[in-house]
Amino acid sequence: MYAVYTCSSRVGRLPVAAVGRPMQIRNSLLVFALFASFALAQNPPAKRPMTFEDMMAMKRLGETAVSPDGKWLAYSVTTVDLARNSKTPELWLQAIAGGEPMKIGVAQPGDGGPQFSADGKRILFTSSRDGSQQVWTADFDPATGATSNAKKLTSISTEADNAHWSHDGSFVVFTSAVYPDCPAISFEDAGGDKCNADKDKAAADSKVKAQIFTALLYRHWNHYTGPKRSHLFLVQVDTGKLRDLTPADPHDVPPFSLEGGGGFDISPDSKELAFTENPDPVPAISTSAQIWTLDLTNPAAKPAKISTSAGGNFNPAYSPDGKYIAWLSQARPGYESDRFRLWLYDRTAKTGKDLLPGFDNWVDEFAWGGNSKELLFASGTNGESPIYTANLSGLSFELDHNGEFGDLHPIRAGALVAARVTVEAPPEVLNLDYSNTVDSEGGYDVHIRHVDSKESTVTHLNDSLLAQLDLPKMESFWFTTKDGTKEQGFLIRPPAFDPNKKYPVKFLIHGGPQGAWDDSWSYRWNAELFAANGYVVVMINPGGSTGYGQTFVDRVNGDWGGKPFTDLMSGLDYAEQHYPFIDKNRECALGASYGGYMANWVLGHTDRFKCIVSHDGMFNAESAFGSTEEDWFNQWEFKGNPWDYYGKPDAENPFRKWSPSLSAKNFKTPTLVVHGQLDYRLDVSEGFQLFDTLQLLHVPSEMLYFPDEGHWVLKPQNSQLWYKTVNAWVDKWTKDSGQ
Questions:
Q1: What pLDDT band is residue 76 in, cutting at 50, 70 and 90?
Q2: CA-closest candidate to residue 135, choices 144, 122, 143, 126
Q3: What is the pLDDT of residue 455?
Q4: Phi/psi at 95 (nearest 5 deg)?
Q5: Angle at CA 208, nearest 5°, toward 207 and 209?
Q6: Reading across the β-sheet that carries 229-236, which strands appear in turn?
């Protein structure tokens, strides 16, 4: 590019003597241009490190839907406008076999939740185009992909979300948050909707914003729950008739979920609904969501519970032939990180079973195959999240692909559409064909068989931008901990890596604690972006991490600062010993949530790091117990309540034994504290306590405080400040150390 630009610039400054020789000059220029083009073809432009602005310019894949004939993909794409500090989703349509994407004609920016009707002739979506979010429908031409005749289906004052077609196309089920003490909202009686509208208006108009709490859970993650509860509604497509399917219910249907979604499904004959609800009177100490069914043909019918597990049960889905309902099930109550099993319920026999009793990892999501004889599911495994299939007898195999998969849509026997994300690229939609698989294990007598399948990319949201960026491959390594456990770590080298140089290290600690680093993209903690300004990024999956069996997940229970800490240090020791380009004298530890807790624990238990970044971390386990909103979590992880241990030695009290605050006298490492005011999972007071302690101990420290963010920093310009502040803090203590 430089040569071509130089040539062009010279043309504007031709010497006077050359003006009389235009043909000769043009010929010379032609030869030069051809030479430059040849040079570019042989030596494509060098790739560059990714910047924060690059990451914000990337298109973000959202919800996906596939037409019944398997030919069309509808999907949401969110565009970030950094200057306006905004994110805007739009709905797109694309032929799965290939072709250019096109915007769904009747949709507008901000629309979402696309879904095709079972006959493939209509599409629904949610839209706020008239001022409140409602369900809309439009006609769809499966031959051309054209949409037309958009109509608003609902006009409920409390708005609508999570809309799903019935299989016969006659009605739609959706969720809406209502006041349970108001009359049930129905088509025949407008009083219920008016009651809700009046209450909302009164709350908005009131000068007094105080609330009276009478029970737990009064706030959750980033909002106060208030008096409203999520209910399920049914609306007739032709008449607009509406009815509340869970009237006067004081519980949320479905229960709160970080992943969102409605947590319900409609039977193939459109006569029954299966949904998720936690009926326990104190939801703050319970994870025992249950599966219920409701007869939709009888307005007087009451829900019937069909799940039997004392733990959590989520996301029921009917088999296409209607014989079964599958869902995700946990065995142990109160433990949100128990193994998620794939549960199969026989509707006729009214019996259920764990479909894969020998499968020890979590089933993250699943979908029925069209023949009702197999289910496809994704599961985190050794830093990846591949797709598996399982038949009704429990035999399963793994499709041989890298990355993390989700949004599974079977389109025919042996083929599906799914989204895949890797650490090097945000999600794209793939078409996978496993109809002619080859068994790489050489037999059918094993529980899990690995097979090869063909893939083709359907969407290309960020190809042109990613082609410009130097995004190093993530490397995996295995090491042995002090107690002999084999564990996995990952490493990313900096762009333009020079093996003869020594590089500083960003040591990332994941949250959860039942989480994992894996081959996945993130906009909040992007490993490639952390490496981009000249760092080696090291990530360890210590005890408690998912993807290595439930026993490994349970390794962290009641031992927060014990084995997981020594696991992390053992992993970093291994990386230092086996990667000679690591400068062990210039390392910084960074973590958020449980990773923030561990950063605080590291602060009091080792001086090996030049700096620390603690984001939304627990500092004082006793105060965190009283200021969080999911009490079941701390009750499980710390084996009870703080008052259960009063009068006992600290060594016998998990709330004190594993509290970073009690090691404050050892704090020496420069620390950046980050916390958001709206974080109700780990209250902002935890960050304030840590910063206060560091300042009084004269430990070099700063605090980045967000008054408008919760547990995660989500607003684009806030995210920009976060990365700028964090990277500047790490640079200050590592790059300028002179080591």
A1: very high
A2: 126
A3: 87
A4: -75, 130
A5: 115
A6: 161-165, 171-178, 229-236, 242-244
